[in-house]
TrEMBL record:
SMART domains: JHBP (SM00700). The keyword Transferase does not apply. Residues 1-19 form the signal peptide. This is Hemolymph juvenile hormone binding protein (JHBP). Transmembrane segments: none annotated. Keywords: Signal. Pfam families: JHBP.
Length: 247
């Protein structure tokens, strides 16, 4: 969870640089410097905050109470065992652009972050409920894994500066070039269903990601906007420390 929050808050907070640097080239260069700083933190970890290295990430076991994310309607628990994630430190960035709007005073950031090859494998046990707009429950226990090719995130954000830094618009669009492999067992505790899902996903992985891109955008936008504008979530000092090092 700290990886998600720190990454999103870092990207959003980079926009605050514009308040001091009206030159877009300076702004764009400092954002690239901040991303490289964060790459170093991902590689080395931050031991004082129990933030592990992601080069690669290896977690013998762990769990997340989804109600703590603060997303309305979302609850339940996700537990993992022998979690392995590789490729997150190899991200690439491109199309970094910054522009200034005068009425109202605002700063606009656009950019793309791409993960050339991402590998995930784990044993999982989940029971998740989502009650918006209708009640949905997802559960099961088994194995999950994938090797994703060129998972990309396109970011378009507008930040206003009157009365403090606030996100007035945020779009986060995900895309995927393909999958080298995909494994799933135990979904709804149904092996036949799991096999059908694997077949469907491997048939058109990029199309499936495109189908759910709007849903991902809505969830991420809500989480990050609340975090930046309203101070949503909790901070044990970790996020503040990351920002002080990289911004």
């Amino acid at each position: 969870m700290k990886f998600l929050l720190s990454t999103l808050v870092l990207l959003a907070s980079c926009l605050a640089i514009f308040a001091e640097n009206k030159n877009s080239k300076v702004f764009e260069s400092q954002i690239e410097d901040a991303l490289e700083c964060f790459r170093g933190l991902l590689i080395n970890g931050v031991p004082e905050y129990d933030f592990p290295s992601f080069n690669p990430l290896v977690v013998p076991e762990g769990s997340v109470d989804l109600s703590e994310l603060g997303i309305e309607g979302l609850s339940g628990r996700v537990a993992v065992e022998d979690l392995y994630i590789a490729g997150l430190t190899d991200f690439q960035y491109s199309n970094i652009k910054g522009t200034i709007g005068l009425i109202p005073p605002r700063y606009i950031f656009q950019g793309t972050i791409n993960f050339p090859l991402t590998t995930i494998s784990t044993k999982y046990d989940l029971d998740v409920q989502y009650a918006d707009p209708v009640d949905v429950r997802v559960y099961g226990a088994g194995d999950f894994g994938l090797e994703a090719v060129n998972f990309s995130i396109d970011i378009d954000a507008t930040v206003t500066v009157l009365g403090g830094i606030n996100i007035s618009n945020l779009d986060v669009w995900v895309s995927l070039a393909g999958l080298n492999s995909f494994t799933l067992t135990g979904y709804f505790n149904d092996e036949e269903l799991s096999a059908q899902i694997v077949e469907t996903v491997l048939a058109d992985p990029s199309g499936l990601v495109a189908d759910y891109a709007q849903t991902v955008n809505d969830l991420v936008t809500e989480l990050v906007t609340d975090l930046v504008n309203n101070g949503g979530g909790s901070d044990d000092g970790f996020l503040s420390d990351i920002l002080s090092q990289c911004i």
